[in-house]
């Protein structure tokens, strides 16, 4: 599994902070409150911890609105325009047992940065990425917990803003 740091804007709203913690707990990544840290500072911290990438969450009107992955030297790998449902409840997801159930065509690049095995027949600890029926969305990411129930935490991919080849 690829590990990384997750951080946010310098003064994130509560919803963005909760989103970062949900993401961190789901994937088993390290959440760091950004404070006055620059992108370079975060990259150095990521490298110090032995990670290859860092994930920054940006917000608009107090809600998570963009998820970007960078290398430790600050090179952007991809950015997604997102919308999210967060939860303050425990997610009951075991990151070390997390697997993909599905990834729609066009989003396969996610597996390079969120490197999990596939289990099409699994029923727990799963990431389901399904194409959206809503024309305003590309896909919806749902997380199935260790009890086989869909968690309240959900990410909608609205657009691919940048993708490095």
Question: Can you give me a brief rundown of this structure?
Answer:
This protein is α/β, with parallel strands linked by helices and 165 residues long. Helix content is 17%, strand content 39%.
Give, in spatial order, the strands making up the sheet with the most strands: 2-1-3-4-5-9-8-7-6
Question: Based on helices, strands and strand pairing, what is the structural class?
Answer: alpha/beta
Strand content: 35-45%
Measured distance between first and last alpha carbons: 21 Å
Please tally the helical runs, counting DSSP H or I stretches of 4 or more residues: 3
Shape: globular
Kindly give the count of domains: 1
CATH architecture group name: 3-Layer(aba) Sandwich
Helicity, as a percent range:
10-25%
- Low-pLDDT residue intervals, each spanning 5 or more residues: none
Average pLDDT figure: 93
> How many β-strands, per DSSP?
9
Q: List the helices and strands in order.
A: EHEHEEEEHEEE
Q: Which class in CATH terms?
A: Alpha Beta
Radius of gyration: 15 Å
CATH-assigned homologous superfamily: Brix domain
Which fold does the CATH topology refer to? Rossmann fold
Largest sheet: 9 strands, mixed
């Amino acid at each position: 599994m690829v590990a990384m740091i997750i951080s946010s804007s310098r003064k994130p709203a509560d919803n963005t902070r909760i989103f970062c913690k949900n993401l961190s707990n789901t994937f088993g990544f390290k959440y760091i409150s950004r404070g006055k840290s620059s992108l370079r500072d975060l990259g150095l911290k990521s490298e110090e911890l032995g990670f290859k990438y860092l994930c920054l969450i940006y917000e608009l009107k107090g809600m998570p609105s963009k998820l970007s992955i960078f290398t430790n030297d600050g090179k952007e790998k991809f950015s997604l325009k997102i919308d999210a449902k967060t939860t303050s409840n425990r997610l009951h997801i075991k990151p070390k047992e997390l697997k993909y159930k599905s990834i729609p065509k066009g989003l396969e690049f996610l597996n390079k940065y969120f490197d999990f095995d596939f289990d099409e027949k699994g029923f727990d600890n799963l990431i389901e990425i399904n194409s959206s029926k809503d024309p305003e969305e590309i896909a919806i990411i749902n997380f199935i917990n260790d009890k086989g129930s869909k968690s309240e935490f959900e990410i909608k991919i609205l657009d691919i803003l940048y993708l490095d080849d």
